[in-house]
């Protein structure tokens, strides 16, 4: 099929854009040089013929998909090494490493994913200098391929309840790893099934019968030559899933497997030859890799959404349906204001979380520097922020990815649109690295503690400083500052109400734990409200900061999106605002009008805004979202790749249908 250059609808849309698209791309990439570097890597990666799929993944068997993903992982690794991309692959060192768009060559994830995202970072974060020297080098050269094995069949959330044991034998100076029950089998680690030969195993340390809590151990599970599981190691793949089907998630059990003493990662806690345990300054330092990954999830969530919204908005610009005015042609569906309502918030939300993720990464890096000199003061706030922002970014972005999919009608249901796969990998972020409700409860724990300490005169950390403000009623103010203050009031109101309930329940005779459980619906509401206030504040302040350096045209569009985000959230959370602020019906009416005006204002820039995410077609992998907008042609081309279309009549006709038709079954 020969394609014209660009669909005229998209051509028209691009002509109405009021700002410089490249300028916004550079901002999202955290600098023009980062855009250039990213594009250079993409040029390399997408020119490798081995990285292209001849048959779409969805037409392959489970086994073939895995084998194809391994093949591509190896070629990708090779080309990235040749290109000199080390930072983004092994360990993020900078914000610019976030836009590793080339990973989209895996629609459903890479089996090497955990090597890069958790195995190597845990070696770097939890190993002492000698261990880092040994293991990091081996991992860099891909001599060892690893994963992070923490979750078990019986426990994912409650990690103090993990059952895998590492018992120290001082006679041989070894740890003996054992899985005492079926429920103690590791379950879920990415790549564990058939890919990795080593892993970080999080296990309960025991010395002379005494428990010392969960510690990280580096364990060889397969022979480096034959790849056969080592004696005493039971390993395999866990089977088909909603998504991540090429990540090769696995199970793992141990039957008294011995490893040398120095295979416990000993940066923070140590076990001496004679079995003396030296505890870390803070026992939660063993949870460090999880904090780091939660921080990075905020960016992943924003990225998945930015891809989905690019696909949905481009498709909405080329799709014509129904009649707005009887005597006129069918309009682009993007002209329906309900369609704009579904989609423009996706652009704004993606910006909000992307800019917040860069800010959060800076907070994390600052903490890392302080941790290196023994200062852990920032950890409680960082932990609360990482938990809460992980939750609201993953749940908001996943909800909006699904909205994008549905906004494309039937075609959004096609695997070739890539929207179902984007939903699959996005919704996984709501569960992994801390299930979302549990993470909100962790946040609430930190907030209640801060509130109680605050009431006794202790200062609040920066993101909670507004808790100290008196909650005096004031007239509703629809400016950005006014809305931010209103959301802070909601946050204070929900937290103080949760704390009152906790106090009443304990006064009525409930134990602290039962009171907590009974009030937990309120508590997660308070945690979410704090997260909202943080995101509103950071999104606004980051855009105000960038606004000082970008062109007036771009500044104006960036603020349209900030306003849209603020007004949309105000209308969504109207109930809370009516309860805790002076918002009135009259204010709501004028906010609705403001929202409709903003949709109208953003409409001419919709395509420019999604073009600025700068996803080349190979990255989007979508029949509906390509840059040229020829969605129907691509849908048909992809449909023709179905193996069923290789022959006009399938053999099942002769075997089953014909006998049925002839009454001969
Ligand atoms: C590509 C991705 C693939 C996916 C990979 C995975 O999913 S891998 C698998 C991912 N798996 C998961 O994500 C599992 C999710 N589960 C967990 O992370 C933990 O079991 C827990 C945090 C829920 C509870 O832990 P617990 O029972 O040990 O703790 P507690 O509740 O009794 O609180 C005690 C104190 O510790 C504090 N504190 C807690 N965590 C941290 C931290 N990280 N840092 C700092 N501090 C922390 C807490 O604030 C509290 O302080 P307070 O108030 O005393 O001053
Ligand atoms: C795609 C994917 C990839 C993964 N990759 C890895 C990996 O590489 N390595 C690894 O170690 N793990 C991995 N995991 C496991 C993941 O970290 C866990 O599934 C996650 O932490 C949730 O734990 P769980 O499955 O035990 O859920 P559960 O805790 O059993 O959750 C079930 C329900 O119980 C509720 N619940 C549990 N505890 C509480 C509580 N205290 N209060 C209130 N409600 C509660 C939850 O809210 C939820 O509704 C992966 C998971 C997925 C889906």
Overview of the structural elements:
The protein has helices spanning 8-15, 21-28, 32-45, 62-83, 87-90, 113-126, 129-140, 288-318, 337-372, 379-407, 419-428, 436-455, 480-507, 512-518, 520-547, 552-572, 574-580, 585-602, 606-611, 617-620, 631-639, 651-661; strands at 148-149, 165-169, 174-178, 186-187, 198-207, 210-220, 233-237, 250-254, 257-260, 270-271, 277-278. The protein is of the alpha+beta class. Among the domains are: 29-110, no CATH class; 145-280, Butyryl-CoA Dehydrogenase, subunit A, domain 2. A hairpin with a 4-residue loop joins strand 2 and strand 3 (174-178). Helix 8 (288-318) packs parallel to helix 10 and helix 15 runs antiparallel to helix 16 (552-572). The protein binds (2E)-Hexenoyl-CoA and flavin-adenine dinucleotide (FAD). Flavin-adenine dinucleotide binds at residues 114, 147-151, 155-157, 188-190, 244, 249, 428, 431-435, 437-438, 441.
Please outline what is shown here.
Pfam families: ACOX (PF01756), ACOX_C_alpha1 (PF22924), Acyl-CoA_ox_N (PF14749). This protein has 665 residues and is α+β, with helices and mostly antiparallel strands.
Oligomeric grouping of the chains: single chain
First and last CA, distance: 42 Å
**Could you name the CATH topology of the domain at 145-280?**
Butyryl-CoA Dehydrogenase, subunit A, domain 2
* Outline: globular
Per DSSP, the total helix count is: 22
**Low-confidence spans: pLDDT under 50, at least 5 residues?**
none
The total of beta strands comes to: 11
Class from secondary-structure proportions: alpha+beta
Mean pLDDT figure? 96
Bound molecules: (2E)-Hexenoyl-CoA, flavin-adenine dinucleotide
Backbone CA Rg: 27 Å
């Amino acid at each position: 099929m020969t394609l014209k250059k660009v669909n005229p609808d998209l051509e028209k849309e691009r002509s109405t854009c009021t700002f410089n698209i490249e300028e916004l791309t550079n901002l999202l990439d955290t600098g023009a040089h980062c855009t250039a570097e990213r594009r250079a890597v993409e040029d390399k990666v997408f020119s490798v013929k081995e990285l292209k799929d001849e048959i779409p993944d969805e037409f392959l068997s489970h086994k073939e998909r895995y084998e194809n993903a391994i093949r591509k992982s190896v070629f990708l690794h090779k080309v990235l090494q040749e290109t000199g991309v080390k930072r983004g692959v092994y360990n993020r060192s900078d914000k610019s490493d976030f836009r590793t768009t080339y990973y989209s060559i895996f629609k459903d994830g890479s089996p090497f994913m955990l090597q890069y995202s958790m195995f190597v970072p845990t070696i770097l974060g939890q190993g002492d200098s000698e261990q880092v020297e040994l293991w990091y080098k081996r991992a860099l050269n891909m001599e060892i391929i690893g994963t992070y094995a923490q979750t078990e069949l019986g426990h994912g959330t409650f990690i103090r309840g993990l059952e895998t044991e590492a018992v120290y034998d001082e006679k041989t100076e070894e740890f003996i790893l054992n899985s005492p029950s079926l429920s103690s089998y590791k379950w879920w680690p990415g790549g564990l099934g058939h890919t990795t030969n080593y892993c970080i195993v999080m296990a309960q340390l025991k010395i002379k019968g005494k428990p010392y809590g969960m510690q990280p151990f580096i364990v060889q599970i397969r022979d480096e030559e034959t790849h056969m599981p080592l004696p005493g190691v039971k390993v395999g793949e866990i089977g088909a899933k909603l998504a991540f089907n090429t990540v090769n998630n696995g199970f793992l059990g141990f039957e008294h497997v011995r490893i040398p003493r120095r295979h416990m990662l000993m940066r923070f806690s140590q076990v001496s030859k004679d079995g003396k345990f030296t505890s870390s300054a803070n026992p939660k330092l063993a949870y460090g890799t999880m904090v780091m990954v939660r921080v990075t999830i905020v960016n992943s969530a924003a990225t998945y959404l930015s891809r989905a919204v690019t696909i949905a908005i481009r498709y909405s610009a080329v799709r014509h349906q129904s009649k707005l005015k009887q005597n006129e042609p069918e309009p682009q569906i993007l002209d329906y204001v309900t369609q704009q309502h579904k989609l423009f918030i996706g652009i704004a939300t993606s910006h909000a979380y992307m800019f917040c993720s860069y800010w959060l990464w800076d907070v994390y890096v600052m903490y890392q520097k302080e941790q290196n000199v023994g200062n852990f003061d920032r950890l409680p706030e960082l932990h609360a922020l990482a938990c809460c922002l992980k939750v609201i970014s993953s749940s908001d972005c996943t909800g909006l990815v699904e909205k994008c999919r549905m906004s494309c009608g039937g075609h959004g249901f096609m695997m070739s649109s890539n929207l179902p796969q984007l939903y699959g990998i996005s919704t996984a972020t709501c569960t992994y690295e801390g299930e979302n409700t549990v993470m909100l409860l962790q946040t609430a724990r930190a907030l209640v503690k801060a509130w109680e300490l605050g009431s006794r005169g202790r200062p609040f950390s920066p993101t909670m400083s507004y808790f100290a403000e008196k909650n005096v009623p004031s007239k509703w103010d629809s400016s950005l500052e006014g809305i931010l203050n209103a959301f802070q009031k909601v946050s204070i109101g929900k937290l103080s109400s949760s704390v009152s309930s906790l106090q009443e329940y304990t006064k009525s005779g409930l134990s602290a734990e039962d009171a907590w459980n009974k009030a937990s619906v309120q508590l997660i509401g308070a945690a979410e409200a704090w997260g909202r206030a943080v995101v509103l504040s950071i999104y606004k302040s980051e855009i105000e900061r960038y606004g000082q350096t970008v062109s007036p045209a771009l500044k104006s569009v960036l603020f349209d999106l900030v306003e849209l985000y603020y007004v949309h959230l105000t209308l969504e959370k109207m109930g809370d605002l009516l309860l805790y602020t002076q918002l009135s019906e009259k204010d709501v009416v004028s906010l609705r009008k403001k929202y409709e005006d903003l949709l109208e204002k953003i409409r001419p820039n919709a395509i420019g805004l999604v073009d600025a995410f700068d996803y080349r077609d190979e990255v989007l992998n979508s029949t509906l979202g390509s840059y040229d907008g020829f969605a129907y042609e691509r849908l048909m081309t992809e449909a023709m790749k179905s193996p069923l279309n290789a022959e006009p009549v399938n053999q099942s006709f002769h075997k089953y249908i014909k006998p049925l038709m002839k009454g001969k079954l």
